[in-house]
Amino acid sequence: MELKIISVSLAAERGRKYEAKKIELNKSGVIGDVHANTSRPVSMIDQSHIDTFREITSSRTTETGEFAENIRVEGLNDTKVKAFDRFVNDSVILEVSQVGKPFHSSFREIGHYVMPKVGIFMRVLEGGNLQAGDCLNYVPKVFHTKLITLSDRASKGIYEDKSGALIAEKLTAFFEKIAWDLSIDKQIIADDRKQLQAQIEDATQKNYDLIITTGGTGIGTRDITLSVVKPMLDHEIPGIMEHIRMKYGSLKPNALLSGGVAGTIGSALIYTLPGSVKAVTEYMQEILITLKHLIYMKADMDVH
User: Fold this and answer.
1) Per-residue pLDDT at 202 exceeds 60
2) Which pTM does this prediction carry?
3) Quick one: pLDDT band at residue 107, thresholds 50, 70, 90?
4) Predicted confidence band at 104 (pLDDT cuts at 50, 70, 90)?
5) d(CA 263, CA 269)
6) 3-state secondary structure the chain
C-alpha cells in the first residue's frame, strides 16, 4: 500500500508542531524536534482521521501539526496498523512502536481524542529526508516461525506429529488474539545433529522471529536437541524453563527431568520443548504468557 505525505512538521518544544518544508530523520527521530530521543520519536496521522474529527466537531478548521504529528499522510484510512509494521521508501525505514498513547490534555476536543486513539508512533531504522509529496509504502509485519519436530519415527511417517501440530495450533490462536500476523514453517526431521543445526541456521539467515523445537530434550542417546542448541545461543533465558519445571515438577517429579532451554539466536527467540503432547500443552501455556513482552524486549522497544 502506497501512502502520500501531505505535510511534515516539527517543534522544538512540547505542544503542537508547525509545518516544515522538509524534516530530516536519524536514529534519534526528527532532527530538531522535541520528541527526538524519546520512546515515541516520530508520529504520524492519516488525513481520514482528521476529516472524521472535523465532522464530529462541526467542521472546525485544523492546522498542520496541530495534533503534534510529524507526518500527515493520506491513503491509510482504517487500516489496522500494528507494532513492528513499517513505512518505507528508497531512503527511510520507519518501524511502528505503538498505536495510540496515554491521553495528553493539550490536544483534545471534549469527548473526541485523536492522536491518543489513532496516532501512529514510530522509531527510525534508516534515516533520511521527508517532505510533502513524498510517498511511503506500508509493509505489515509478519512474524516468521520455524517449528521443528525431532522424531525418527515421525520423520519416516510411522506416526503422526501431534506435538508439532499442537504447538502450531496454540501459536496461531495466540497471534490471532493479539492481532499480529504469523507465518509458520513446519519441519519434521530425524533426531540428527546436522539436520537440526541446518534448520536453525536457515531460520537465522532468513531473520526468523521464532524458533520452536519439540522432542529430543531428554538424556537418551538420540536426544540431541540441547547439545546442538545450547552452543548456538547468543543469550539464554533460564527463568522460563526453570519456572515450568518447578511448577509442574512439584506435582509430577518426572517433569523435572526435561532439559528444555529458552534464549536467543540471531534475530530469533528459541524454545526447546519436550516431545509429548501433554508436556507441549504445559510448556506453551507458560511460554505464551510472556511471549509478547519478550518480543518487545528482543527488539529493544520500550512500550511502557
Assistant:
1) yes
2) 0.87
3) very low
4) low
5) 6
6) CEEEEEEEEECCCCCCCEEECCEEEECCEECCCCCCCCCCCEEEEEHHHHHHHHHHCCCCCCCCCCCCCCEEEECCCCCCCCCCCEEECCCCEEEEEEECCCCCCCCCECCECCHHHHCEEEEEEECEEECCCCEEEEECCEEEEEEEEECHHHHCCCCCCHHHHHHHHHHHHHHHHCCCEEEEEEEEECCCHHHHHHHHHHHHHCCCCEEEEECCCCCCCCCCHHHHHHHHCCEECHHHHHHHHHHHHCCCHHHHHCCCCEEEECCEEEEEECCCHHHHHHHHHHHHHHHHHHHHHHCCCCCC
Q: Which CATH architecture fits 142-298? A: 3-Layer(aba) Sandwich (3.40)
User: What's the pLDDT at 183?
Assistant: 98
Binning pLDDT at 50, 70 and 90, where does residue 303 land? Answer: low
Asked if the model's pLDDT at residue 206 lies above 70, the reply is yes
C-alpha cell at 113: 481524542
CATH fold of 2-139 reads: M1 Pyruvate Kinase; Domain 3 (2.40.33)
Q: Where are the domains of the chain?
A: 2-139, 142-298
